[in-house]
């Protein structure tokens, strides 16, 4: 009976994750079609529906978890650990595994210097700020207010400087049946909320019956599931030549997740922060982003230096290839390193950072 209960709750949890992600994608698609139908500008759609849409599973999870904490449904520590682990785990997955798989799928990923300054540096700063606020083991309502306010400020900055940023036009077709699409969007959002409730029930069962910690489940299972919309959008965008959409989706989501997701949840209920998130997950999220940034910014310099060494050793052809390394271009070798970095992060997490509190 115990084994059957574990299997049943595992199946229910998997269905809940799939439902959460798919319903979020349907809701975003219908909302974009409705916005196009009513003549909402592509810039506004990009900064609102699309930027928040791929983070909808994480955002819904935070709202549901905070609501359960406020209502006294479930252990607040388990709920906090699970939702924070899922959020931060999703960010790490995107920065390493997702970017790596996307590059392997399409052959290359090119970053502009302006994008690195306007997107990548704010993403690293956001992670560092979350780490500082969470260092004392609590995320209070004041902390949440700070994070949400920064999200609004960053969104306002993007809107005010939109003419200086390469904007990708929306290729969404306008809605042909606004009433129907509005109903579908509403039902999809309801499914997102219900799926999140079911998911936390399943996680609570596993924590109680198996001894697994909430943040570990969040990082390993929820993080990968919640990152799937960003991965799908990024691959489709790159295959269609929409580089801006792919880059913006991956990086923008990692800004939205902590600022709006963790910020909104903390503002509603406060969170207990598990030790592994402070001592390993958030630092590794920062380190992985910094490694990729340093790699992209110094790649041509390193190639030039190694090319000079190869020339002095008599390997002229190798030296020429090394000097021809393109700046801010992530190829298959870099992608493989990112994927290896993710699995290394996961191995250490599972092996040495097991207990939450």
Automatic annotation (TrEMBL):
Entries under Pfam families matching the protein: Na_Ca_ex
InterPro entries reported in the protein's UniProt record: K/Na/Ca-exchanger (IPR004481), NaCa_Exmemb (IPR004837), NCX_ion-bd_dom_sf (IPR044880)
Signal peptide: none
Gene Ontology molecular-function annotations: calcium channel activity; calcium, potassium:sodium antiporter activity
Compartments in which it is found: Membrane
GO biological process terms on file: intracellular calcium ion homeostasis
Membrane topology recorded in Swiss-Prot or TrEMBL: Multi-pass membrane protein
Sorted UniProt keywords: Membrane, Transmembrane, Transmembrane helix
Record-annotated membrane-spanning stretches: 6-24, 92-112, 119-138, 144-161, 182-200, 215-238, 250-271, 329-348
Limits of the Sodium/calcium exchanger membrane region domain: 14-159, 183-349
A GO CC term assigned to this protein in UniProt: plasma membrane
Stored PANTHER family: INNER MEMBRANE PROTEIN YRBG (PTHR10846:SF8), SODIUM/POTASSIUM/CALCIUM EXCHANGER (PTHR10846)
The protein's name in its UniProt record: Sodium/calcium exchanger membrane region domain-containing protein
């Amino acid at each position: 009976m115990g084994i059957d209960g574990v299997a049943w709750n595992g199946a229910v949890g998997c269905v809940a994750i799939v439902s959460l992600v798919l319903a979020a994608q349907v809701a975003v698609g219908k909302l974009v079609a409705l916005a196009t139908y009513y003549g909402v500008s592509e810039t506004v759609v990009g900064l609102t529906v699309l930027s928040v849409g791929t983070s909808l599973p994480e955002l819904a999870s935070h709202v549901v978890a905070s609501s359960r904490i406020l209502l006294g449904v479930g252990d607040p520590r388990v709920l906090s650990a699970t939702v924070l682990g899922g959020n931060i785990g999703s960010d790490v997955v995107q920065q390493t595994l997702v970017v790596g798989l996307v590059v392997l799928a399409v052959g290359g990923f090119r970053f502009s210097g302006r994008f690195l300054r306007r997107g990548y540096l704010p993403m690293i700063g956001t992670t560092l700020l979350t780490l500082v606020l969470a260092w004392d083991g609590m995320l209070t309502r004041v902390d949440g207010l700070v994070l949400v306010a920064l999200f609004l400020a960053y969104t306002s900055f993007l809107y005010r400087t939109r003419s200086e940023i390469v904007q990708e036009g929306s290729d969404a077709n306008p809605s042909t049946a606004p009433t129907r699409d509005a109903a579908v969007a509403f039902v999809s959002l309801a499914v997102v909320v219900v799926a999140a409730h079911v998911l936390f029930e399943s996680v609570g069962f596993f924590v109680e019956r198996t001894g697994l910690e909430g943040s570990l489940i969040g990082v390993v299972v929820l993080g990968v599931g919640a990152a799937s919309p960003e991965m799908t959008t990024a691959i489709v965008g790159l295959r269609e030549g929409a580089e801006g959409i792919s880059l913006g989706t991956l990086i923008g989501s990692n800004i939205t997740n902590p600022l709006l997701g963790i910020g909104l949840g903390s503002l509603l209920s406060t969170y207990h922060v598990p030790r592994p998130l402070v001592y390993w997950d958030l630092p590794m999220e920062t380190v992985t982003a910094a490694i990729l940034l340093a790699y992209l910014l110094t790649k041509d310099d390193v190639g030039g230096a190694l090319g000079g060494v190869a020339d002095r050793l008599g390997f002229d052809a190798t030296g020429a290839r090394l000097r021809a390394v393109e700046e801010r271009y992530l190829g298959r070798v870099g992608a493989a390193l990112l994927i290896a970095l993710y699995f290394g992060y996961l191995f250490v997490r599972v092996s040495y950072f097991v207990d939450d509190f």
